[in-house]
Amino acid sequence: MLDLPFSNESFDVVVEKGTMDVLFVNSGDPWNPRPATVNQVNAMLEGVHRVLKGDGIFISISFGQPHFRRPLFDAPQFTWTVEWSTFGDGFHYFFYILRKGTRTSNDQGSIEKTEMPSICLLQEELEGEDYIFRTSIDDDES
């Protein structure tokens, strides 16, 4: 996770669910996480960025809210755009889509919230073979 043993530009898509959340468990103040936490998260993101192909997509599913994640995703060494949406009722998960190859600007409105259809979190829905295909990560209108 912090030292991915893969060649550069090996993957079209990288998916993580909760990995970054684990790194934040003992981070202290969420507005100002401990330097050790920031270093670990940066190592993870740098590894993901490195193994993604030039137009690759990183999907991060997290409890971490955009105002806490954006400073890390928008670090100057990364060349990706950031979009996000929420799913779940009451207690939200955040679904981040980072597209490598273009840079999100650093202004306050740079992270874009995308509107996606509600995702049912009932067990029988999650176990369906087409669950991942019901999440929209591609720009194609097919």
TrEMBL record:
GO biological process: methylation
UniProt-listed SUPFAM superfamilies: S-adenosyl-L-methionine-dependent methyltransferases (SSF53335)
Annotated InterPro entries: Lys/N-term_MeTrsfase_sf (IPR051419), SAM-dependent_MTases_sf (IPR029063)
UniProt KW keywords: Methyltransferase, Transferase
This protein's record includes keyword Transcription regulation: no
Domain of life, per lineage: Eukaryota
Keyword check for Transferase: yes
GO molecular function: methyltransferase activity
Protein family according to the UniProt entry: Belongs to the methyltransferase superfamily.
UniProt protein name: Methyltransferase-like protein 13 isoform X1
Organism: Rhizophora mucronata (Asiatic mangrove)
